[in-house]
Design a protein that fits this description.
Elements lengths: L2 H20 L1 H4 L4 H8 L10 H27 L2 H27 L7 H11 L2 H20 L1
Helix pairs in contact: 1-4, 4-5, 4-7, 5-6
Length: about 150
């Protein structure tokens, strides 16, 4: 793939991630958006439907994951990186989701910060920002060795 086309495609994919965030109120059920925006210090935990929240988290995480995996594949065109990323995303999803649901079940008894950051990793594509430099560094060190 031509370098300019690759960069343009990656920019379009990052824009897709921005669109997911821009339309979060329309696309996803998440009563914690408003809660963590300004009510977390004074308001009690919002009433929520656990099944709807879980389904929404799956959908949002899956959407962000697919776009992120496309970014990683277009950037490096390395199936090994793609397979590692897919496994990483799946394991992270299960660990983070179970952790988030346990925290919510305890009604944020130990504070809101841990729940806030666990949720942040579930709903935002932060992992792609960690994986891209890691794979770039891996690619550079492998080329230097050869």
């Amino acid at each position: 793939m031509n370098k300019k086309v690759k960069i343009a495609f990656i920019i379009v994919l990052f824009f897709a991630l921005v669109l997911v965030r821009a339309f979060e109120n329309i696309l996803f059920y998440d009563p914690f958006i408003a809660y963590f925006k300004d009510g977390y210090l004074y308001d009690p935990i919002p009433v929520f439907s656990g099944s709807k929240l879980l389904l929404s988290l799956c959908f949002r995480y899956g959407l962000n994951m697919m776009i992120s995996l496309l970014i990683i594949y277009v950037a490096f065109q390395n199936k090994g990186f793609l397979i590692f990323s897919l496994k990483f995303y799946i394991i992270a999803f299960f660990v983070l989701t179970i952790t988030f649901l346990i925290i919510l079940r305890g009604e944020l008894a130990h504070g809101y910060l841990f729940a806030f950051y666990v949720r942040r990793f579930l709903i935002h594509p932060l992992f792609v920002l960690l994986l891209l430099p890691a794979f770039y560094y891996k690619q550079l060190t492998v080329k230097e060795i050869i």
